[in-house]
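Journal club side-thread
Mid-discussion, someone asked how the predicted structure for our own chain would compare to the paper's figures. Pasting it here so we can look after the session.
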Amino acid sequence: MSNKVLLVDDDDALTELLAEYLTAEGLEVNRMPDGESGVKEILGGNHYDVVILDSMMPKMNGLDVLKTVRAQSKIPVIMLTAKGDDIDRIIGLEMGADDYVPKPCQPRELLARINAILRRSQQNADTSATANSISVSNVTLYPAKRQATIGDTPLELTSTEFNLLEALMRHAGQVVSKETLSLEALDRKLAKFDRSIDVHISSIRHKLGDASLIQTVRGLGYLFVKN
């Protein structure tokens, strides 16, 4: 069965090009021309493995779409952002986007990001079959259910945030470099000047409510504290 991708973008020429390329690579692609129709499609009971979401659209912009979707779904989302627009990029990651690709984007690069998410999802499924739970300090992960708690309180994590937290907890008490985290959580090499890991870690700390659980080791990476 083909993996399903939803493209939400008002640029007909671009989405037609991307849809043609991704379909030729074995993906099933559907397109929505604006944010409102995108939200209805995503939350309307239709199954998609990845959503590609433009940040600037009529009726409802990409960030508003992301906020609405994240309130109800953990579906992986890749944002399309204007080249050099670091603000939209960082805000998107803070609001729960799993990754981003600057526009104008190359179909091959977008495919690589999609495949990285799909591979990671499969790896998570394989790992879940042998791991019931991972507990460090007062944080517990349940890989099979893709759920996490701190104490008795559920943590609402995106797919990428869960991947990062799992990678840190599996190496609890050890410093994990951002390069390693990018490979394990995003399934891609860390690009120069890429702040994705930092933004995701900041979001995880906020959700944990205890920033001291994840320490920054300057110049080396991050460490999950093992009490």
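Post-session note: The longest helix spans residues 107-128.
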